[in-house]
Amino acid sequence: MLIKKTSTIIITLLALLQLGCSTKNGSLSLSSDYVYPNSNVTPIQMAQVSRTYFSIVIPPMFNKEDYYELKEELLQQVPEADIVTNFEYEAETTQWLPLPYVGIVSPYTMTVTVKGMASKMEVGKKELY
Amino acid sequence: MFKSYKIKGAEMSRSIIVSIVLLIFLGLNTGCSQKFFAGHKEQLGFTAPNSNVVTTGNGKVIGTASSTTIYPLGATLAMPSFSAALKEEAHQDALKGTDGDFLINADVMQGYTVIPLLLVTIITSTIEVEGQPAKVSEIGKQKLN
Known about the structure:
The complex is a heterodimer of chains A (about 130) and B (about 140). Chain A has about 130 residues and is α+β, with helices and mostly antiparallel strands. Chain A has helices spanning about 1-20, 65-75; strands at about 20-30, 40-55, 85-95, 105-125. Chain A has a single domain (about 20-125), classed as Translation Initiation Factor IF3. Chain A is about 25% helix and about 45% strand.
């Protein structure tokens, strides 16, 4: 009887640990940086970087420093690249254990993925008439 | 004994008034503030494909703009507002003293302060933009086939 009760509690706790509600927030930009009209842009290859942030009580915040770190990491994959075109940003935030009362101290994870076409940009002067 | 009780009552009333005044001042100073990264924008002004664009020699510049709104008690729409006009005001503030017409590679930060008082809620919204000033040095015509 005791073993049955204990296993029920353990199974319930394990099931609760699986509970999580997620929300996604993303954006799609033409490029990670300004593309001069007087430039030549050469696509090199697709690149992608993901990073997960963790917090308790308040969901993690994505700040300016994180943005630049991820962009730099992405560009380091393709050393010749200066910019990322068709730049996609996606953040998935998950609240674990979203239960009444327990939810106040929920752990949160936020996985941010940035991807796009790593490209080279050469700025010059366009001949106009 | 009776006289002593009356003095205590007066002191109590005074204490209550002082406490209320202190609470109001405390409320004025204990607004909750939040500032967050609202995104990276490649450019804050249109550039025609038939143009040459150059950066100005100013390096990165910062501009801010803020607006304050007072909401009555019970207003359900009491929330920070980040209007296009406020963003443009911050953009123009950043360009002050530079030769630039617009910013490129701009980071936008948004922030707000909420001061909840007894009958009203005061909300201040702030936008900060930081970027490189640039200008269109030439607009011409491209050869099209």
